[in-house]
C-alpha cells in the first residue's frame, strides 16, 4: 500500500466515523482491514479528533464494543473541569 492509498483510507475512515460506529462497522463499510482502522483510531485519539460516545453491543458480532465519532458536536462533556464546582 502506497502513502497516497493510506492517506485516502485514513481520510475515508475519519469521514465514516462522523456518525457513531464501531471499528468493525467502519472496516466492513470501507472494505479495509480492521487493524488499519484501529491504527487510524489511535492516530485520531492522539490528535483528540475522535471520542467514545458509548459502549454497547456490536451489531455484527454481538460483543461489547466502543462506538466512536469524529463529530465534535457528539463528544461527551468533560466532567473533570467541573469536578469541584
Give a verbal description of the structure.
By secondary structure, this protein is of the alpha+beta class. It has one domain (3-73): Arc Repressor Mutant, subunit A, CATH 1.10.10.10. Helices cover 41% and strands 15% of the residues. The protein is built from three helices and two strands. It has a two-stranded antiparallel ribbon with strand order 1-2. Helix 1 crosses helix 2 (23-30) and helix 2 (23-30) crosses helix 3. The longest helix has 14 residues, at 3-16. 18% of the residues are buried.
Entry keywords:
85 residues; Arc Repressor Mutant, subunit A; globular; 41% helix; single chain; two-stranded antiparallel ribbon
Residue-averaged pLDDT? 90
Shape: globular
CATH topology: Arc Repressor Mutant, subunit A
Number of domains: 1
Q: Architecture, according to CATH?
A: Orthogonal Bundle
CATH level-4 homologous superfamily: Winged helix-like DNA-binding domain superfamily/Winged helix DNA-binding domain
Strand content: 15-25%
* Largest sheet descriptor: 2 strands, antiparallel
N to C succession of SSEs: HHHEE
- Classify the helix fraction into a percent range: 40-55%
End-to-end C-alpha gap: 51 Å
Number of helical stretches of at least 4 residues: 3
Structural class: alpha+beta
Give the CATH class.
Mainly Alpha
Strand order in space, largest sheet = 1-2
List strands and helices in order, with pairings.
Elements (H helix, E strand, L loop, with lengths): L2 H14 L6 H8 L3 H13 L4 E7 L6 E6 L16
Antiparallel strand pairs: 1-2
Helix pairs in contact: 1-2, 2-3
Amino acid at each position: 500500500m502506497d502513502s497516497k492509498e493510506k492517506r485516502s483510507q485514513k481520510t475515508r475512515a475519519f469521514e465514516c466515523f462522523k456518525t457513531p460506529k464501531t471499528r468493525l462497522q467502519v472496516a466492513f463499510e470501507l472494505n479495509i482491514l480492521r487493524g488499519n482502522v484501529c491504527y487510524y483510531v489511535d492516530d485520531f485519539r492522539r490528535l483528540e479528533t475522535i471520542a467514545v460516545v458509548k459502549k454497547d453491543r456490536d451489531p455484527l458480532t454481538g460483543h461489547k464494543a466502543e462506538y466512536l465519532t469524529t463529530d465534535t458536536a457528539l463528544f461527551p462533556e468533560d466532567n473533570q473541569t467541573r469536578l469541584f464546582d
